[in-house]
Amino acid sequence: MMKQLWTVAILSLLLLAGCSSHAADKKEALDGETLYGNKCSACHGGNLKGAVGPPILNMSSKYSEDELFKMITEGSDKMPGHLLTDEESRVVTKWLMEKK
Asked: Do 19 and 65 lie in a common domain?
Protein backbone atom coordinates (compact mmCIF):
# COMPACT_ATOMS: atom_id res chain seq x y z
CA MET A 1 0.00 0.00 0.00
CA MET A 2 2.79 2.44 0.91
CA LYS A 3 4.63 1.60 -2.31
CA GLN A 4 1.53 2.46 -4.36
CA LEU A 5 1.18 5.75 -2.53
CA TRP A 6 4.79 6.66 -3.31
CA THR A 7 4.31 5.68 -6.95
CA VAL A 8 1.24 7.92 -7.24
CA ALA A 9 3.09 10.79 -5.53
CA ILE A 10 6.09 10.50 -7.84
CA LEU A 11 3.94 10.27 -10.97
CA SER A 12 1.97 13.32 -9.83
CA LEU A 13 5.17 15.31 -9.36
CA LEU A 14 6.42 14.29 -12.79
CA LEU A 15 3.13 15.32 -14.34
CA LEU A 16 3.24 18.69 -12.59
CA ALA A 17 6.85 19.22 -13.66
CA GLY A 18 5.85 18.53 -17.25
CA CYS A 19 3.04 21.07 -17.05
CA SER A 20 5.37 23.65 -15.56
CA SER A 21 7.97 23.25 -18.30
CA HIS A 22 5.22 23.56 -20.92
CA ALA A 23 4.15 26.83 -19.33
CA ALA A 24 7.75 28.05 -19.46
CA ASP A 25 7.94 27.13 -23.16
CA LYS A 26 4.74 29.07 -23.83
CA LYS A 27 6.17 32.13 -22.03
CA GLU A 28 9.35 31.84 -24.09
CA ALA A 29 7.30 31.75 -27.28
CA LEU A 30 6.00 35.21 -26.45
CA ASP A 31 9.42 36.78 -25.89
CA GLY A 32 10.98 38.21 -29.06
CA GLU A 33 14.46 38.53 -27.62
CA THR A 34 14.51 34.90 -26.45
CA LEU A 35 13.10 33.61 -29.73
CA TYR A 36 15.68 35.64 -31.65
CA GLY A 37 18.47 34.32 -29.44
CA ASN A 38 17.36 30.72 -29.89
CA LYS A 39 16.44 30.74 -33.58
CA CYS A 40 18.07 33.68 -35.37
CA SER A 41 21.25 34.83 -33.61
CA ALA A 42 23.44 32.03 -34.97
CA CYS A 43 23.23 33.65 -38.40
CA HIS A 44 22.43 37.28 -37.62
CA GLY A 45 24.58 37.65 -34.50
CA GLY A 46 23.66 38.15 -30.89
CA ASN A 47 24.08 41.90 -31.35
CA LEU A 48 22.01 42.01 -34.60
CA LYS A 49 25.14 43.14 -36.48
CA GLY A 50 25.36 40.03 -38.64
CA ALA A 51 27.47 36.88 -38.76
CA VAL A 52 26.83 34.38 -41.54
CA GLY A 53 23.66 36.32 -42.31
CA PRO A 54 23.41 40.09 -42.81
CA PRO A 55 22.98 42.65 -40.03
CA ILE A 56 19.37 43.27 -39.09
CA LEU A 57 19.52 46.50 -37.11
CA ASN A 58 17.15 49.34 -37.94
CA MET A 59 14.76 47.13 -39.91
CA SER A 60 11.91 49.63 -39.46
CA SER A 61 13.73 52.07 -41.76
CA LYS A 62 13.95 49.41 -44.51
CA TYR A 63 10.70 47.45 -44.27
CA SER A 64 7.13 47.74 -43.10
CA GLU A 65 6.07 45.37 -40.35
CA ASP A 66 4.13 43.26 -42.88
CA GLU A 67 7.12 43.05 -45.25
CA LEU A 68 9.44 41.97 -42.45
CA PHE A 69 6.91 39.41 -41.18
CA LYS A 70 6.63 37.95 -44.69
CA MET A 71 10.43 37.75 -45.00
CA ILE A 72 10.79 36.03 -41.62
CA THR A 73 7.91 33.66 -42.35
CA GLU A 74 8.69 32.74 -45.96
CA GLY A 75 12.45 33.30 -45.99
CA SER A 76 14.52 35.12 -48.59
CA ASP A 77 17.43 34.39 -50.93
CA LYS A 78 19.66 32.52 -48.48
CA MET A 79 17.46 32.50 -45.38
CA PRO A 80 15.13 29.53 -45.08
CA GLY A 81 11.52 30.18 -44.21
CA HIS A 82 9.24 28.54 -41.70
CA LEU A 83 11.86 28.35 -38.94
CA LEU A 84 9.31 29.88 -36.58
CA THR A 85 5.57 29.46 -36.18
CA ASP A 86 3.44 32.35 -37.45
CA GLU A 87 2.93 33.51 -33.85
CA GLU A 88 6.69 33.39 -33.16
CA SER A 89 7.38 35.22 -36.44
CA ARG A 90 4.96 37.98 -35.45
CA VAL A 91 6.62 38.34 -32.02
CA VAL A 92 10.14 38.49 -33.52
CA THR A 93 8.94 40.94 -36.19
CA LYS A 94 7.52 43.33 -33.60
CA TRP A 95 10.70 43.01 -31.51
CA LEU A 96 12.98 43.69 -34.50
CA MET A 97 10.92 46.69 -35.60
CA GLU A 98 11.84 48.34 -32.28
CA LYS A 99 15.59 47.74 -32.61
CA LYS A 100 17.69 50.65 -33.89
From this structure: no
